[in-house]
Amino acid sequence: MNAAFEHSSPWCQSTLPVMMTHVRRLLLVLAVAGCGGKQAPAPDQIELRRVGANELRAVEDFAKIRDRGTRSRALFGEVARVLAHPRCINCHPSGDVPHQRMTMEQHDPPVVRGPDDRGVPGMECTACHQDRNQPLTRVPGAPKWPLAPIEMAWVGKSVSYICNQIKDPKRNGGKSLSQLIEHNAHDELVGWGWAPGTEREPAPGTQAQFGALTAAWVETGAECPEEKR
Amino acid sequence: MKVKINGVEKSLDVDPEMPLLWALRDVLGLTGTKYGCGEALCGACTVHLDGHAVRSCVTPMRRVDGHAVTTIEGLSPDGSHPLQEAWLEVRTPQCGFCQTGQIMTAAALLAIKPKPTDADIDQSMAGNICRCGTYPRIRAAIKKAAGIDGGDQ
Fold first, then answer.
1. Strands, E, within A46-126: which ranges?
2. Which residue of B has its CA nearest to A123?
3. What is the ipTM of this complex?
4. CB distance A28 to A45 below 8 Å
5. Is the pLDDT of residue A13 over 70?
6. How far apart are CA A47 and CA B12, in angstroms?
7. CATH classification code of B2-74
8. Is A84 within a domain?
């Protein structure tokens, strides 16, 4: 679908859509300098608890990482497993068309974001999407159902980019870090990711875990993984 | 619940989860709005809710309670809406099944953008499917109704 998806390196270098697969394999928290694909493991790699693809590690799982900055970056890696999930990233496209399904195909019927991220006249998001999921027609819904603004685009972006983006008030809807924690922990549309209805696969873990991981990331300095060079 | 249908206040005793399309066709007898796919994928059931185009097959009555719905029967009192006239002039309908949804979507577009570009028309009409392939005529009729060059086949 997108050449940017075809990375095969560890999460510190990956773009989000492929990151899920890599994170499942990733048992080690990589030190800042140890992010090369075929390099020998860095001496301070620490093994984290294995979890299934539909689970999130708990904040406590990261306590064994002594270095605060390394712990913060590792926590964001866990947060990013949620951001990378199609339930979340599908509505953070880098273009004007949302994605859908686990395959991230283009939204069908064909829709575009429009001037205020809510569609165009005659084809507004709420022409079809209601305030809740509809089990019979399988149309997903939540009280508010806009597309993420283009400055919040995640598709094809690196984890490092998104980390810096998500804590930048100019690109996160004007949120402080404490507001970001609240948003991730309690926002209804964010919460839809874990209650998507019908046969849709939910985002990993729970919203409460996601909020706790976000809070722990902020508390450890909101450090971001380094960009691939 | 109370709903203004084509300008007339109606009191309806229906399940709040009943799709608006069911209420229109089966309860109120307004059969101009068509059932196509039943999953908001084809646009045949498009009506206006407070002036915005919605797919009535997936719109529950609880959302409509206290609001105004306009169907093809209420778009104009006598079929004289510019789109309806242009539709006939360009001979847009073939089998005709999708046409009321097409017109209601186009009317929602022209209400916001009286002089739409081709790109505007394409984006707004993209979700209304026509199995007869009348898309060039639909576009021509919309442009004709808008008084834009290119509105004649």
1. 46-47, 99-100, 105-106, 119-120, 123-124
2. B124
3. 0.94
4. yes
5. no
6. 63
7. 3.10.20.30
8. yes
